[in-house]
Design a protein that fits this description.
about 650 residues; alpha/beta; Alkaline Phosphatase, subunit A; about 10% strand; elongated; binds (2R)-2,3-dihydroxypropyl phosphate; binds manganese (II) ion
Length: about 650
């Protein structure tokens, strides 16, 4: 009886903590429930329990009176975070992250929408904050808030921290063992991090990661280093080519990035059928760069986008879209918007994936037509790919529908259907005979690529019929390799050579097509070029010139460009410097033989220098400083 009484007294001494924690849990639940996010799940609940224990443990360090105030402040801050996230998510469909806080200035642009986003039922997120002070007042007035001994408070604090840490670390370890750590390292989707860490844990994780990368772990660059980097950028600039400069001035621009679209499929057959008949035919009427390379890193699709839109290299780890979405970039959409283009991006998956919503806003796209918009517009009956979304053809045709603008347009389409594992696609869209690889990843790849090729063909034909083809610069390219390991059977099926197909060069090789209205020079071009050269090429054609912080130059000089890759390797013309942990090898791409290192030593060094410079530019957001550097050097010259 005595024990029970003691337990009861003990409980009453701490009663406010579980009550407040319960209310906060309700708020977390309301948030997740409204937005269709995960909360009622064994893992998420345990981690959330641990987080709340850690959070409220702080209050145990204080005397009862001050403790109530501390609890109220914790509750206030946590509620503010949850509610701010809710309002932000209602509009942008994503969480507030540290880089977003630097863009709060943009909030004024949407202030009208913000008021629209508030609802009277939201009062449940704040009402307790008003009630708690009343209860506190009552408790003290009635003297029913006894003091708690220091020993008890200390023991409680230590226990809470211990249990809190274990409740987070044990499930988190099991989770990363099961799913790998990549989703935490790359953070390509905030939602997948949220699922693992819980709501408040997400913010703790994201903020720590941001601080580590941007402040604590940031290497400082000296003025001298900056100047060196700026000279590297200057060194990459080319004089405008009179033959091409402004050749397509004022024309529309359509850029299509095709998912996992490797160059080896071009002009290849399986069972006597062309895999990509439409793209094969386009060679005769466009510039087809067959030695075009993707230069992506861990940011995969987002890296390809970044390279072609911003003409800067990607980072050594992670995706620029996720890590530096608020920097100043001289991006193609931004520069075209300045020329009064109507700019729209199309992608048939969640707008938040790869932090596209944040990055596209920074790029200055007028519109981003994402998965939800496409579903609203099309109301699809059949779904494509593991992303369960509309097919590329339907998305392409939405871009076509939007081409009736009075202003010139820039459409940037990021295709998706041919994404790993390349299935499912509806039977009606699977028209290639891929026997004997029907139930095989290689067959699925060819099937999906064949569908995407048809989608390109449909769009091009529609544009031709409407007279838009001759009014539009069109660039089409693949984003990166397909991740399928080669074997002899696959190589034989397309009459290819296994060694060549599985070589480093082929894995980096994606097709690049460039249609220039009124241009007579067409056909295959064999000079080495890469994604870094895309934006400068388009700008040259449109006759747009400026001191841009770009590390690529136009490919229309038809010379071999140096093409550095994120792993430190580089290709120029027929030579590949293949980086390795020790020193690297030099390979002649025609013979496939290793040749004397001295042949490509300078290529390797130059490539590494450019990659490093690019990282310094991005990690320190040096765009403005670069422009000042150019102004100063010009003033000195005058
Ligand atoms: C999804 C898509 C993912 O939006 O871009 O492509 P990935 O980066 O996995 O190739
Ligand atoms: Mn991709």
């Amino acid at each position: 009886m005595h024990i029970l009484k003691s337990i009861g007294k003990f409980f009453m001494r701490h009663i406010e903590i579980p009550i407040i924690a319960f209310i906060l849990t309700c708020k977390l639940y309301w948030f997740a429930d409204e937005l269709g996010l995960r909360m009622i799940h064994e893992h998420t609940l345990i981690v959330t329990f641990g987080t709340l224990l850690l959070l409220f443990s702080i209050s145990l360090l204080f005397h009862r009176r001050s403790r109530l105030l501390v609890l109220w402040v914790i509750q206030l801050l946590a509620s503010f975070i949850i509610y701010a996230d809710l309002v932000y998510y209602r509009y942008f469909g994503d969480f507030i992250t540290t880089p977003v806080l630097f863009q709060v200035g943009q909030a004024s642009d949407i202030s009208e929408s913000i008021t629209e986003l508030l609802s009277i039922t939201d009062l449940k997120f704040i009402i307790d904050l008003l009630i708690i002070p009343i209860i506190v007042f009552f408790l003290f007035k009635k003297h029913i808030a006894p003091r708690i001994h220091l020993i008890e408070r200390t023991v409680m604090f230590v226990l809470s921290v211990l249990i809190g840490v274990l409740s987070i670390s044990i499930p988190m370890n099991a989770y990363t063992e099961k799913y790998g750590e990549n989703f935490l390292v790359n953070m390509w989707s905030n939602e997948s991090v949220f699922n693992a860490t819980g709501h408040l844990g997400f913010h703790a994780f994201e903020t720590t990661k941001y601080l580590k990368e941007h402040i604590i772990g940031k290497t400082t660059v000296t003025e001298e280093e900056k100047q060196d980097v700026f000279r590297v950028v200057e060194g990459q600039q080319q004089e405008p080519n009179v033959e091409w400069f402004g050749k397509a001035e004022g024309k529309n621009v359509l850029m299509i990035q095709l998912e996992s679209f490797e160059n080896f499929v071009i002009n290849k057959k399986i069972n006597g059928q062309e895999i990509t008949p439409n793209l094969n035919a386009l060679i005769e009427e466009t510039l087809y760069f067959s030695e075009f390379y993707h230069q992506t890193g861990q940011g995969r699709t987002s890296d390809a986008e970044f390279l072609t839109q911003s003409s800067l290299y990607t980072l050594n780890g992670g995706s620029v879209y996720v890590r530096y979405p608020s920097n100043d970039y001289d991006s193609l959409p931004l520069l075209l918007k300045e020329q009064d283009y109507q700019t729209t991006a199309y992608h048939s998956y969640d707008e938040t994936f790869w932090n596209r919503d944040g990055m596209y806003r920074n790029y200055g796209f007028d519109d981003f037509v994402g998965k939800d918009d496409l579903f609203e517009r099309i109301n699809p009956t059949e779904l494509y790919s593991s992303f369960e979304t509309v097919g590329d053809e339907q998305m392409f045709m939405e871009s076509f529908e939007d081409m009736n603008t009075t202003k010139p347009f820039y459409h940037f389409i990021v295709a998706l259907t041919s994404h790993h594992p390349f299935t499912p696609i509806p039977d009606s869209a699977s028209t290639l005979n891929v026997a004997p690889f029907e139930q095989d990843i290689f067959g699925d790849y060819l099937q999906s690529v064949n569908y995407v090729d048809r989608a390109v063909g449909t769009l091009v034909d529609s544009m031709k019929k409407e007279g838009l083809w001759e009014e539009t610069v069109v660039a089409i390219y693949g984003d990166h390799d397909n991740g399928v390991a080669w074997n002899q059977e696959y190589a034989d099926a397309i009459e290819g050579d296994l060694d060549t197909l599985s070589s480093y060069k082929t894995l980096k090789n994606v097709p690049f097509y460039l249609h220039i209205p009124g241009n007579e020079k067409v056909g295959e071009q064999k000079n080495s070029v890469g994604m870094i050269n895309v934006a400068p090429t388009i700008l040259e054609l449109l006759g747009i010139e400026g001191n841009y912080m770009h590390l690529g130059s136009s490919m229309l000089n038809f010379e071999d460009h140096l093409v550095p890759f994120r792993d430190g390797s580089s290709i120029k013309g027929d030579v590949l410097f293949k980086a390795s942990l020790e020193s690297g090898a030099c390979i002649n791409l025609v013979s496939g033989e290793e040749v004397d290192e001295s042949t490509c030593q300078s290529i390797g060094e130059e490539g590494k220098k450019i990659l490093k410079s690019s990282s310094i530019l991005i990690e320190n957001n040096l765009n403005e400083a670069y422009k000042s550097f150019l102004n100063e050097s010009q003033e000195k010259e005058n």
